Amino acid sequence: MIRTRFAPSPNGPLHLGHAYAALVAHDLARARGGEFLLRIEDIDGTRSRADLAEQALEDLRWLGLVWDGPVVSQSDRLATYQAAGERLKAMGLLYPCQCTRAQIAAAATRQGPDGLIYPGTCRGRDVDTQGAAWRLDMTRAVALAGSLVWEDDIAGPQQARPELFGDVVLLRKEAPASYHLAATLDDAADGITLVTRGADLFMASHVHRLLQALLRLPVPCWHHHALLVEPDGRKLAKRRDAPSLADRRLAGEDGPALARALREGRLPAGLSLSTGVASYEPRP
Ligand code: GLU
User: Is 281 among the domain residues?
Assistant: First the structure.
């Protein structure tokens, strides 16, 4: 049976891009008689807000979306993330890192899919573990996991290339786990068979596939959907002025009618759907 999920981070109000993502995940599941789950990605205690999580549920109900089972919250799963981190440490795959952002920016020379590639400063060094972030030793991890493939149901089969990211942080200084570790563990725990999310996270799936292999987790299929973009080609973002779903809802707009319009590709003026964000080629 197919099971998808929508996994918003409650650090800002949902906007039309989220509505589109939720509809895609919901409709893919329902079209095949499957289940649609809702997960609140509130692992970052400093940025997540309970009122925004509550507001997100209201927004989804307003759109006419119904999810299966109880809402899952990452803040309930901290012990799971910690246990996985300990397992990876015991496998000799994590090392502590005390570098600041500024130090990394000064020392890094290469760009990866998600910003600068960590230059490996703390790898193999005797670093104080107190308050440290823990990074994956990517070379070791890739050597252990061997060649991996994963499947995107739009883009087709993919050779996993997690090495493009370098030594990613898995246990963060200021939060219990990184997005990569938490999302991978959650999708496994929730029995997600089709990981549905925006094309801006396409490359992250390379890392998630590696983590699945290292932690012996089931391997789902992926669906990276197009993103709603503004006239300048940039995706709608919470930090810019995308009108929130809550504003529309409270202004009395018809939620199911908006959902219908998004499903039919009738987008508000100035917005379009872009798939052009899925590709990435490493820059020298
Ligand atoms: N929480 C992420 C976001 O709001 C989604 C992550 C995912 O779907 O894997 O962008």
Answer: no
**How many whole angstroms separate alpha carbon 231 and alpha carbon 138?**
38
| CATH number of the domain encompassing residue 234 | 3.40.50.620
d(CA 145, CA 122): 23
Residue 156: exposure state from Cβ atoms within 10 A (0-12, 13-18, ≥19): exposed
- For ligand 1, the distance from its centroid to the CA atom of residue 9, given in whole angstroms, is 7
Residues with CB under 6 A from ligand 1: 7-9, 41, 183, 197, 201
pLDDT digits (tens, 9 = 90+) for 110-160: 999 989 999 999 999 999 999 999 999 999 999 999 999 999 999 999 999
Phi, psi values for residue 124, rounded to 5°: 75, 5
In a domain, 284, yes or no: no
d(CA 112, CA 30) in angstroms, rounded, equals: 36
pLDDT by residue (tens digit) across 231-279?
888 888 765 667 899 999 999 999 999 999 999 999 988 899 987 654 4
Query: Does 279 fall in a domain?
Result: no
